[in-house]
Amino acid sequence: MSPLEISCQDVKTMLDDEEQKFLFLDCREQDEFDHVKIEGAVLLPMSEVTERVSEIEEHKNKPIIIHCHHGGRSLRVTNWLIQQGFTNVKSMAGGIDEWSETIDPTKPRY
């Protein structure tokens, strides 16, 4: 796992801890999000990040965790946000596919 990644289990722990405050972004496309999503995640498709980055500007110095299907897109978005000056961004390793395997098997895999 890269230093820019966080495990699904660590994300689950953070989601379960109501005192943990972070922005949980899903950078998949709308149709993927409609098919299956993780509760608490906010959709911001990778294809729209550059135009919509101002929507998350208030989180520039706050924790942000990004996920996608397998972890590739979210890692690219993580790197791009860091280049834009965001200071606390991580990609969820394995994406929602790993989440479905290890955390919540009720989530359909695709």
What does this structure look like?
The protein has 110 residues and is α/β, with parallel strands linked by helices. The protein has one domain: Oxidized Rhodanese, domain 1 (3-Layer(aba) Sandwich), CATH 3.40.250.10. It has five helices and five strands. The protein has a five-stranded parallel β-sheet. The mean pLDDT is 97.
Order of helices and strands: EHEHEHEHEH
DSSP strand content: 5-15%
Q: How many structural domains?
A: 1
Helices, by number, come to 5
Describe the largest sheet: 5 strands, parallel
Separation of the first and last Cα atoms: 23 Å
Share of helical residues: 25-40%
In spatial order, strands of the major sheet run 1-5-4-2-3
Low-confidence stretches: none
Produce the secondary structure layout.
Blueprint: E1 5-6, H1 8-16, E2 23-26, H2 30-35, E3 42-43, H3 49-52, E4 64-67, H4 72-83, E5 89-92, H5 95-102
Parallel strand pairs: 1-5, 2-3, 2-4, 4-5
Compose a concise summary of this entry.
35% of the residues lie in helices and 15% in strands. With 110 residues, it is an alpha/beta fold. The protein has one domain: 3-Layer(aba) Sandwich (Oxidized Rhodanese, domain 1), CATH 3.40.250.10.
